[in-house]
Design a protein that fits this description.
168 residues, four-stranded parallel sheet, 6 helices, 13% strand
């Protein structure tokens, strides 16, 4: 994250900690995100921008679409399984992982709502081993050929694109 902090130095970066093993339902993590943002004590017109990776994009989208979109102006999602992932087959007992399986009711619920007026930027890769094909493609999408799911958020071209989007 040091590279991201260096490139995005004009922004105050806060990290929302959640259990990335996804042992709980994603709605629970979205509620935790709501509590995290509520504790920021934003001024009346002040808003946050969310930059999220993998399942974090699903959690942030749920937060915006179902819990509170008034506090968010922009969201960036990187390789988030909006149309599902096969990884649920490896972790059958994890509630949150089950929710990101292809055609899950949870993903259908998220897809049923619009994210507007929040501005969105989405990165996806056809060759991503965890979220393959168009599974991570959402609105305002940019395809990348960087396919290493676990480290794509550290790839400089992604970070520079995020910086440009946040500055617009």
């Amino acid at each position: 994250m040091q590279l991201a902090k260096k490139i995005l130095k004009e922004f105050e970066l806060l990290y929302f900690p959640y259990n990335t093993k996804l042992t709980e339902n994603l709605e629970e993590y979205a509620n935790q995100l709501k509590n995290f943002i509520d504790k920021l004590k934003l001024k009346k017109e002040e808003k946050v921008s969310i930059v999220s990776f993998s399942a974090g994009g699903i959690i942030a989208s749920y937060y915006i679409k179902f819990l509170d979109k008034k506090k968010v102006d922009k969201i960036v999602t990187v390789c988030s399984p909006f149309r599902g992932s096969w990884i649920w087959r490896l972790f059958l007992r994890r509630k949150g992982v089950q929710q990101v399986r292809k055609n899950s009711e949870f993903l259908k619920k998220i897809a049923s709502r619009n994210i507007k007026p929040v501005k969105e930027l989405n990165f996806w890769c056809w060759f991503d081993p965890l979220v393959p094909g168009k599974s991570a493609k959402a609105s305002n999408s940019k395809h990348t050929f960087f396919f290493l799911h676990w480290i794509i958020q550290f790839w400089p071209p992604i970070i520079y694109n995020i910086q440009k989007f946040l500055n617009d």
